[in-house]
Amino acid sequence: MEDKITIENLNLYYSDFHALHDVNMHIQKNEITAFIGPSGCGKSTLLRCLNRMNDLVEGCRIEGSVKLDGTDIYGGDLDVTVLRQRVGMVFQRPNPFPMSVYDNVAYGPKIHGVTDKQELDEIVETSLKQAAIWDDLKDRLNKSALGLSGGQQQRLCIARALAVKPEVLLMDEPTSALDPISTSKIEELALQLKKDYTIVIVTHNMQQAVRISDKTGFFLLGDLVEFGETDQLFSMPKDERTERYITGRFG
Ligand SMILES: Nc1ncnc2c1ncn2[C@@H]1O[C@H](COP(=O)(O)OP(=O)(O)OP(=O)(O)O)[C@@H](O)[C@H]1O
Question: Which residues form the ABC transporter domain (predicted)?
Fold first, then answer.
């Protein structure tokens, strides 16, 4: 199997606070990798390292390397705008822009220089289809995205992320604000998308990790305690701390 992202000896500090301790991980292409662990253990921090979102945090310092297809994203050869196009992100709360459905999806491609109307139309249609929301929205393309339901907004945000043709999709608790039906739609979607993309998802929902992920990493207080095949990690965890967490005997 091919590494899409290789994390080596990653340490992250928020000023004096050492938030991630020597993390090593191989994230494979066309797989879903889940990060689980109690609140504050560093899951989102690590996720944000994968497209350099922590660069925006004052006092944040990173040691070690994160390689995308073998190139260190902190090494200086990769432009951050290009990196964020290649590694897209979907957030916990759906955050559509206050504009039409169409403009939400066309926004990224326009910024990246696509001006041809027909090409934009095609990108919007393809992205909404990939996000399994074309049928819901094809007659509402010019309506405000803010009028959609939460689940529709989140799928629109996934379409928006896909519109710039990323290779990796980072999802930070993408279903935590959604009802069970919308959640299952997003889970089905993630399983569809992994054929074409590499997906990394932070989730508090262990059942979700079991349902959709190939690999799972369990974090505790900034340490990656255990990382491996999801089935194995949940059925025969190697570390006692993982076992206590997944059986709800933690704390
Ligand atoms: N911008 C920041 N400045 C300082 N400390 C931060 C910052 N962001 C996160 N932290 C700290 O780093 C640690 C890890 O936070 P992080 O958000 O990555 O955890 P998490 O596992 O994703 O938690 P949750 O499940 O609650 O979202 C926490 O102790 C948090 O308080």
Answer: 5-246
The string of pLDDT tens digits covering residues 209-248 is 999 999 999 999 999 999 999 999 999 999 999 999 999 8
User: Rounded to whole angstroms, how far apart are CA atoms 131 and 164?
Assistant: 13
- Does residue 17's CB lie within 6 angstroms of at least one atom of ligand 1? yes
Contacts of 74 (CB under 8 A, 6+ apart): 52, 62, 65, 66
Q: Is the CB of 45 under 6 A from ligand 1?
A: yes
What is the set of domains in the chain, with CATH numbers?
1-245 (3.40.50.300)
Amino acid of residue 65: S
Q: What is the pTM of this model?
A: 0.94
C-alpha 34/C-alpha 249 separation (Å) is 21
